[in-house]
Each structure stands twice: as structure tokens, then as C-alpha cells.
Write a structure and sequence with these properties.
Layout: E1 3-7, E2 10-12, E3 18-25, E4 33-39, E5 46-51, E6 57-59, E7 67-72, E8 77-82, E9 91-98, E10 103-105, E11 109-113
Parallel strand pairs: 2-11
Antiparallel strand pairs: 1-3, 3-8, 4-5, 4-9, 5-6, 7-8, 9-10, 9-11
């Protein structure tokens, strides 16, 4: 069965860290780029980071130097280490598998940043 399942979300205070995980099944994981997107309340879903099968990474400017995306091909997993979280980064974070002409999203995990 093809699916992406995220975990690791939660409620944290500004400046805290979280590590999100996504396990992929039913896809040839090592052939695809993987990514993380987020959707804040009342906003469109937005790109956060991606990682190619080679390990090359890309980030949206606002998270550079704070977030790190990684992948473990043996475990078919992709991860997002988020440091120094900001209130404005409260959102549903979705794992994404980047196909050649479409994106497959997981259901997402809620991250709430609040004091």
C-alpha cells in the first residue's frame, strides 16, 4: 500500500526544537526526492525543504540554518530537524514524495509553537 506517515509533531515554546519523521511505503523510495511542506492556519501549503536521492538539499529561505532535512534510504524515512522554532511556524507539516509530474502528500502532523 502506498502511503506516507508522519510523526513527531507537538506543542512547543518559541525557541524549542522538534524532529519530524516520515516513513514511506509502497514506493521505490530511493528513486525519488522527498520533501516537507507546511500549511499554517488560513494560508496555502508552502514548501519547506527537500532532499534528492543523492542527498542534495534545498530549503526555503526562512528556515535555512535552523532546519535540516535528512533521509535514511535503508529505513525509507525522511526527517526534518527544526531548531529555534518561531510562533509563525505553527502549521500542519506534511511529508511529500516528489514524483516527476505530481506530489504525494502524507496526512501531516501538527506543530504548535506557543508560549
Amino acid at each position: 500500500q502506498e502511503q506516507l506517515v508522519e510523526s513527531g509533531g507537538g506543542s512547543v515554546q518559541p525557541g524549542d526544537s522538534l524532529r519530524l519523521s516520515c516513513v514511506v511505503s509502497g514506493f521505490a523510495f530511493t528513486q525519488y526526492s522527498m520533501g516537507w511542506f507546511r500549511q499554517a492556519p488560513g494560508k496555502e501549503r508552502a514548501f519547506v525543504a527537500s532532499i534528492r536521492p543523492s542527498g542534495t538539499t534545498f530549503y526555503t529561505d526562512s528556515v535555512k540554518d535552523r532546519f535540516t532535512i535528512s533521509r535514511d534510504n535503508a529505513k525509507e524515512g525522511v526527517y526534518l530537524q527544526m531548531n529555534n522554532l518561531l510562533r509563525a511556524e505553527t502549521a500542519i507539516y506534511c511529508c511529500a514524495l516528489l514524483l516527476s509530474n505530481s506530489i504525494v502528500f502524507g496526512p501531516g502532523t501538527q506543530v504548535t509553537v506557543s508560549s
